[in-house]
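Treating backbone geometry as a discrete language has practical consequences that deserve illustration. The amino acid sequence and the backbone structure tokens for this protein are reproduced below.
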Amino acid sequence: MEKEPDGVTRSRQMRKFIISEIYSTEQSYLSHMKTLKKTFMDPCINASTSPPLVNKDDIRIIFAHLDDLIKLSDKFVETIETSMDPYEVYDSKLGQVFLDFAEGFEVYKKYAENIQRSRQLLTKKVNQSVFYRRLRNEKRKILDLALVII
């Protein structure tokens, strides 16, 4: 078996490292979004039922597109995982995965366009509402801990 030149070996090692970093970053991002949903969004939704402590319209603004982001990210991580050949990491189809998901990534644009409005409303609600303030204070440690662990 013929030995590869050092430059090719280094390139393959770098490619493997980059692919692994992209995959682990996407896994971490998905985990954070799921934690956000479970820790903050779901309790707000539960509090919007009778008697409502939270306005459903406020939830839609504060957590706009979060469910869509989770669905997309879940499928994206799964597709990255299946595209990674454990025997030939160097021949990953990662570029094609990004091309296949390009249209779906529009949800990130929608999320980003709403983020300022979301933050402003959340700040207002935390200042006005005992429920939001209590939720933030109770759950802050959980979310911060989750971010540190991941």
